[in-house]
């Protein structure tokens, strides 16, 4: 019952959490996982007003397993079009060898 | 002459207040790279405690107040909030190497209000036994929201116009828009660029909706806490819990918040440096200019409707202050193309320290002078 | 008639208490989607502070108390905790569209006790100068643990029986168990299904062990804090630290906790909606029913052994309350097949607000009426 | 000295942290990494009583590098058998090109 | 505009956050992402004085997308040489199928 | 005889202090696997509050003090800090199965100072109305920094020597260094080993720089908070905020910190067990030995320069204490090859409880005896 899948990774500003979750949902992805992250990229800023003296991260990293490559690319395109002009962010695709156990694959 | 020496004495006395001491302490602590940290959870909770206390005391006192007296100061607050943005639009934004959207966002943040600066002013007024109207702290949203709304609207109009011009140009030239975006966005590079056409194609001159911005502001954690306190003070009887908990903790928590603001200021200096000296100059001058502008308006209300001198100081303080908690996320969402380093850096690293350390003592000294000489 | 009008006056007065104000304030704040948040660390710390304070004051006072007086109320507490589960098993669980395990878990949570509701009742009793036995708060575990244990045992028996029946059935039909699991678990789908056989094959009618459940309850953060406070109050002399720290902070921290409970209630409404209206009805009625049941038992103790009317109110309150901190994880581990949306939603979104806003003022009013009319 | 390995990823409810760590240990895996995560899947619930108004995550994500595919599958099977009937969870396998530096490979 | 990349993952003690970030920067990597992590490996200790009763993690996990394998190996070598003798840590390389959207690739 | 019985009475009275009660309570809570937790943010904030309060009160009082009196005790503090390391180097490090670097690091941590232990001693001194010099708490860094610096320097010299010897050996034998590292580092295995040559090749007998270690210590969160408080007490007038906030909260926050220390101690026992019994014995004896050594030096200052007996107790306490907050990261960075399980386990699981529960009451009792009998 194992099966192949693609894993889409999106790292971007925490501010966009809800909006990106909505895009992923609407694309029909079976689920997603999100973790708090920090990082550095082309723009050196991803502050949203949190004190920098506190050590909270202001990025988030989404990982979305999708049944096929197309869905992943669609989500990534949508996110990049809507947000990556104005916000920090990166998205890339990994191979998942196989999904071993899942409720929704 | 005598006025000046009296004033200087007063002013120097204020500089020794522990509030200011903690602010400067925080700056030093961060400057020497200490690992001292106030956890984020504590910082957020302190802000909540301060603003709900300010709200509660206002709400409890407002019951007996004549709210009609509030009309003129509230109108002035809104007016000052809006003016602030236009002042920034026609000074900061015109300077060389300053991007227009960044300047508008910065002006919006300086028009908005800082709850912690307000709390510091209230403490100092109480130490100096200067009375003020119980509803004066409730002027906060009347300046905060108009400033943010104006900034977002002005920026949207500007961006839309620029885009239209660019499109006409690109039609003429039949060139890819990539060059445009590269020069505009700074960081928005190739991978994104190819989608720009699709996007800007769809953006017909769309109207900026105001209600969502107002809602966004009111939903911010600082304003929410203040309004919650106001409502609780107005509709329930929180005297016991206020007297045993919120009021005695106020001064102490404020001192810790000042420490955080000081640490923040130093930590953000680097960001400010990246965006250039004009921001530093604006951030230094703006609190003083906005503050004295508001002081002037306040005096009008003082002489016409009897608005107290303490109230005038509060009006001047919220004008001088720049938002540190709820403003940035609202602007980030409302003017996404503006660089947050510019506005957060300006406000936190320079604007807030100037408001706290210079403006508040200054306003209070002037008010005292006026009171002594029959203001 | 006079009784009723007197009662209503009392009741309405209670509704203006700041405790309730903060609860409703929290509900409104969440309903308008405010970004106001009380950080998790603060929430956890407040719960700790409240329960250790309740424990300390109990422990300090218990030394002089005659613990034999506690026997009858403690037995009643345990009885009510157990009854609660069976009431739920034979009402809620029988309703259409309600899964039996979900209903048992919900009843267990309503049988268990909420530390914050207890704290709120103690504050109100003190404001109203109603005396109660110092050990009354220590009735908490005597109801909490039996309720959780009963719920887990009842659910286990039910699940085991169902499984056996399903197995017999599957042997007869020689069908894959997949269909069964799909219809039972809801979410437990294909990828897992293929392992189900192996698993259910191994599950011979195994006995539920009770001690691990009791231990799990006692190890919960809420009960641990309460018991720690009791022990410290009993064996050390914490008077100074109690008087200078734990006691003065109590009222203020409670008000903030009420805010969190209110925000929680609104936030969880959505979860409740998903599981259907029967849960809402149960969650509304259960606190009142359990509470008055306990009030009745308490009165028996009042008339026979002189249990104070304040103690009766406390017994009724812990019966009316439903656990919000330590209960859910214990149930999640003990009845894993039950849907947490059902029980957490019912308890947090409806049960707790009803207990706080209706039951406590009601119980106190009734107790006062009884006292006035020679109870 | 670099070598191939499989990476097993398990996302599930925080409640199970200790139990899953034990399974991984007992399977003989050389180590694991765990991060707090949030997410959405087939069941919409992974609450364990934390206030939802606080922004803490209630999922965890394990990443286990195993020397071979079999060990990963064994761990995943064990976890799924014990928990995925009653708890939210997903597990999948990624290719790791090579382990560059490690104390225990 | 999509392109292949390598993903270097480094899990090590939180203490080293700044030092490793510096190594990554100096190697010329276009960016990195970092998350708080817990874990277990060959040494059972990665405490740096935090209370263990608090549930904070004391590891960090870096993920660095690099344009080529060499840069990843270089970073990993540098980190391992400087730190892995004395500190807990593991580093490994994953394939990234393609970078879909980025500001700096 | 009479002395002894008097002393025992005093000592047992101290054991009932709530401070100690909370410590033991925390140990029990952790031992029974309770899920009770004090969030990390709260823990960090409490440490900050305690140390800034100690600093503030010191700073405010120091203004009138004659700082020349501080010279001798400060010199003694530094001396004791350095001696501690050498005591460890020539006792613990010589024991079987004890790695030399681990022993040096452990000795360094026991030489360093624990802010929370210091705070507990100050509270007890106040309860017992024993006076002490306002600047006595400022002896902290004078012992803390020399101890850490000495430990790091001694360890570096040792490691460098070992490495040179190993290199000479490896040249003779032309063998891979892998074996050496495997036996030395324990965990540093193959994948890393192959790079060892490159690295050790480059490590010419390099000097240890002292200033970075001092800076690292001063930048630690505990010392930073203490020094910040000192500076604020000295240069501003924080009386109001001190009296309304920092001082009244002190005792309560300390009790909670004791709870955390107790929980920590139990949680770390496992780590200690792994590194062997010698560490446990050292960790039990060291606080007593260091403490009484310092008590002796303190008495010299008492009889020669009039250093108060309260001050002697403070000097003895900081000697007995072992660092729990800022020490470990400094050592981890300064002696990376030492196993943190060894030193953190020894200090937290045994050293701190012994210092808190045995040493402080002991020192105070002895001081009181000396005072009563004309010390
Ligand atoms: N090469 C990279 N490897 C890993 N993460 C990256 C990389 N580049 C960017 N990121 C992440 O993506 C976020 C946004 O990148 P940017 O839009 O380039 O500022 C950064 O804050 C990092 O967390
Ligand atoms: N397609 C997916 N991609 C990434 N994470 C997922 C996916 N499906 C489920 N998850 C994660 O696994 C958890 C449990 O999933 P489930 O058991 O389907 O509720 C979710 O909360 C997510 O964190
Ligand atoms: N096999 C593994 N799979 C995933 N993470 C690992 C593995 N081995 C070690 N780690 C991580 O690397 C850290 C340091 O490992 P070590 O240096 O072996 O103690 C551990 O705390 C884990 O977070
Ligand atoms: Na302003
Ligand atoms: Na109950
Ligand atoms: Na010491």
Features:
heterohexamer; A: 105 residues; alpha+beta; four-stranded antiparallel sheet; 24% helix; B: mainly alpha; Na+/H+ antiporter like fold; 0% strand; globular; binds adenosine monophosphate
Poorly predicted spans of chain A: 44-55
| Largest interface: chains, residues each | E-F, 24 and 39 residues
Structural class label of chain B: mainly alpha
Tally of contiguous helical segments of chain B: 17
Q: Tell me the radius of gyration of chain A.
A: 15 Å
Molecules bound to protein: adenosine monophosphate, sodium ion
What is the C-level CATH assignment of chain A? Alpha Beta
CATH T-level topology of chain B: Na+/H+ antiporter like fold
**Main beta sheet strand tally, sense and closure of chain B:** none
Helix content percent band of chain B: over 70%
How many structurally independent domains of chain A? 1
Secondary structure topology:
The complex is a heterohexamer, with three copies of chain A (105 residues) and three copies of chain B (375 residues).
Chain A: E1 3-13, H1 17-26, E2 32-40, E3 59-66, H2 69-83, E4 89-102
Antiparallel strand pairs in A: 1-3, 1-4, 2-3
Chain B: H1 2-15, H2 18-31, H3 40-62, H4 71-90, H5 100-111, H6 115-127, H7 140-173, H8 178-185, H9 190-193, H10 196-202, H11 211-219, H12 221-235, H13 239-275, H14 277-305, H15 309-320, H16 327-334, H17 340-372
The complex binds adenosine monophosphate (3 copies) and sodium ion (3 copies).
Task: Please tell me about this protein's structure.
The complex is a heterohexamer, with three copies of chain A (105 residues) and three copies of chain B (375 residues). Chain A has a single domain (2-104), classed as 2-Layer Sandwich (Alpha-Beta Plaits), CATH 3.30.70. The longest helix of chain A has 15 residues, at 69-83. Chain A has helices at 17-26, 69-83, and strands spanning 3-13, 32-40, 59-66, 89-102. With 105 residues, chain A is of the alpha+beta class. With 375 residues, chain B is mainly alpha-helical. Chain B has one domain (2-372): Na+/H+ antiporter like fold (Up-down Bundle), CATH 1.20.1530. Chain B contains 17 helices and no strands. The radius of gyration of chain B is 22 Å and the shape is globular. Chains in contact: A-B, A-C, A-D, A-E, B-C, B-E, B-F, C-D, C-F, D-E, D-F, E-F. The structure holds adenosine monophosphate (3 copies) and sodium ion (NA) (3 copies). One adenosine monophosphate (AMP) sits between chains E (11, 37, 39-43, 46, 59, 88-90) and D (29-33, 63-65, 103-104).
């Amino acid at each position: 019952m194992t099966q192949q899948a693609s894993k889409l990774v999106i790292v971007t500003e925490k501010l966009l959490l809800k909006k990106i979750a909505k895009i992923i949902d609407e694309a029909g992805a079976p689920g997603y996982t999100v973790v708090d992250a920090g990082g550095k990229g082309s723009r050196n800023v991803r502050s949203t007003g949190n004190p920098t003296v506190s050590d909270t991260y202001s990025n988030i990293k989404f990982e979305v397993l999708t049944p096929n490559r197309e869905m992943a690319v669609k989500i990534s395109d949508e996110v990049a079009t809507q947000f990556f002009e104005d916000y920090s962010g990166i998205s890339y695709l990994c191979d998942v060898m196989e999904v071993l156990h899942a409720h929704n694959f | 002459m005598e006025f000046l020496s009296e004033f200087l004495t007063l002013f120097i006395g204020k500089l020794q207040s522990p509030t200011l001491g903690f602010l400067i302490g925080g700056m030093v602590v961060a400057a020497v790279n200490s690992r001292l940290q106030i956890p984020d959870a504590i910082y957020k909770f302190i802000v909540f405690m301060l603003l709900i206390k300010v709200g509660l005391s206002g709400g409890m006192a407002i019951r007996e107040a004549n709210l009609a007296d509030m009309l003129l100061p509230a109108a002035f607050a809104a007016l000052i909030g809006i003016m602030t943005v236009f002042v920034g639009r026609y000074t900061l934004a015109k300077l060389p190497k300053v991007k227009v959207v960044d300047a508008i966002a910065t002006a919006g943040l300086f028009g908005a209000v800082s709850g912690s600066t307000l709390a510091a002013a209230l403490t100092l007024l109480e130490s100096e036994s200067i009375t003020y109207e119980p509803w004066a702290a409730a002027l906060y949203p009347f300046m905060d929201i108009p400033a943010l709304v104006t900034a977002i609207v002005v920026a949207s109009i500007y961006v839309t116009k620029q885009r239209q011009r660019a499109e006409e140009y690109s039609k003429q030239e039949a060139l890819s828009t990539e060059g445009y975006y590269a020069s505009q966005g700074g960081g928005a590079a190739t991978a994104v660029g190819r989608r720009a056409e699709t996007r800007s194609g769809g953006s017909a001159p769309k109207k900026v909706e105001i209600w969502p911005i107002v809602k966004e502001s009111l939903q911010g954690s600082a304003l929410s806490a203040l309004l919650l306190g106001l409502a609780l003070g107005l509709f329930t009887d929180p005297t016991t819990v206020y007297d045993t908990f919120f009021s005695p903790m106020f001064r102490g928590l404020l001192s810790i918040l000042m420490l955080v603001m000081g640490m923040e200021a130093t930590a953000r200096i680097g960001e400010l440096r990246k965006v250039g000296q004009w921001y530093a100059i604006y951030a230094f001058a703006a609190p003083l200019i906005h503050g004295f502008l508001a002081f002037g308006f306040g005096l009008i209300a003082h002489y016409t409707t009897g608005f107290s001198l303490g109230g005038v100081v509060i009006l001047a303080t919220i004008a001088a202050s720049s938002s540190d908690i709820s403003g940035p996320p609202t602007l980030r969402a409302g003017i996404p193309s503006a660089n947050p380093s510019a506005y957060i850096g300006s406000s936190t690293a320079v604007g807030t320290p100037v408001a706290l350390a210079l403006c508040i003592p200054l306003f209070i000294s002037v008010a005292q002078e006026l009171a002594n000489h029959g203001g």
